[in-house]
Write a structure and sequence with these properties.
Layout: E1 3-8, H1 22-30, E2 34-39, H2 44-53, E3 60-64, H3 78-85, E4 90-99, H4 107-124, E5 128-133, H5 136-145, H6 148-151, E6 153-155, H7 162-170, E7 174-177, H8 187-195, E8 201-203, H9 225-235, H10 240-255
Parallel strand pairs: 1-2, 2-3, 3-4, 4-5, 5-6, 6-7, 7-8
Bound molecules: zinc ion.
Zinc ion binds next to loops.
Length: about 260
């Protein structure tokens, strides 16, 4: 079995109590068939630390970008992003996007920085990884206005509506499922996942957040992509092996990388 965790934050796991180090996390994931990980940047400084820590790991790819809730950490610098994101282990610009749920007072700033990062993605021809919360219409609008269908991308940790999913699919975007899809009250999300073609789906943990059932409430880790994969396979009427293969191929197609 070859499963890919298309979205984790390896630098945010608990290395005091749960894991010895990143090698330990990667080994636990591989033991469950989760053989490739994409770890996400939320600020450029945190990206640089992950890049240096993971330089020798072929099983891990990197995304570089500034998260809409981390804009205060350091001044946004498009040129620095452009230079850092050229690194050959960087396969995506992300995560980037809009979050009006936790941060409603700086919408214009979020939009400017989001647009700027889509432009970098187009310039480098690397796909975008999108975070969107309580901002669906503006997210779609900015993706359209900045020609994000050129670089392509994925709506990570999908929690939006069917209408949003259809608009994202029209932009040739992919949809990524996190452990949320296993939650009891997630019936609307399950309907969307049943609707999205199997060749447009990715799976992720978003660890350390959002552990799937039966680990809900515990800290999430890449190994648990296995549970998300099993659950989505059942929604799609596929075996786990079939859906693992399909979603891995989707990952390879979107990010223009060979991982198997
Ligand atoms: Zn994330």
């Amino acid at each position: 079995m070859f499963i890919v965790d298309s979205h984790c934050h390896l630098d945010a796991l608990d290395y005091e109590n749960l894991h010895q180090n990143m090698d330990d996390v990667i080994a636990k994931a591989k033991a469950r068939g989760v053989q490739h990980l994409l770890t996400i940047g939320v600020t450029l400084s945190r990206f640089e630390k992950q890049r240096d820590a993971l330089a020798h790991h072929d099983a891990v790819s990197l995304a570089c970008g500034v998260h809409p809730l981390d804009l205060d950490d350091e001044p946004y610098d498009q040129q620095r992003l452009l230079e850092l994101a050229r690194h050959k282990k960087v396969i995506a610009i992300g995560e980037i996007g809009l979050d009006y749920y936790y941060s409603a007072d700086n919408k214009a700033l979020q939009q400017d920085i989001f647009a700027s990062q889509i432009q970098v993605a187009n310039q480098l021809d690397k796909p975008v990884i999108i975070h969107t919360r309580a901002a669906g219409d503006d997210t779609i609008q900015l993706l359209r206005d900045n020609q994000a269908q050129k670089c392509g991308g994925v709506i990570h940790c999908f929690t939006e509506t069917m209408a949003f999913a259809k608009q994202a699919l029209d932009l040739d975007f992919y949809i990524s499922c996190s452990g949320i899809v296993t939650f009891k009250n997630a019936e609307e999300i399950r309907d969307v996942i049943r609707y999205v073609p199997a060749d447009r789906l990715l799976v992720e943990t978003d660890s350390p957040y959002l552990a799937p059932v039966p680990y809900r409430g515990k800290q999430n880790q890449p190994a648990y992509t296995r549970e998300v994969c099993e659950y989505v396979a059942s929604l799609k009427g596929m075996t786990v092996a079939e859906f693992a293969q399909q979603s891995t191929e989707n990952f390879e197609r979107l990010f223009k990388i060979q991982v198997q």
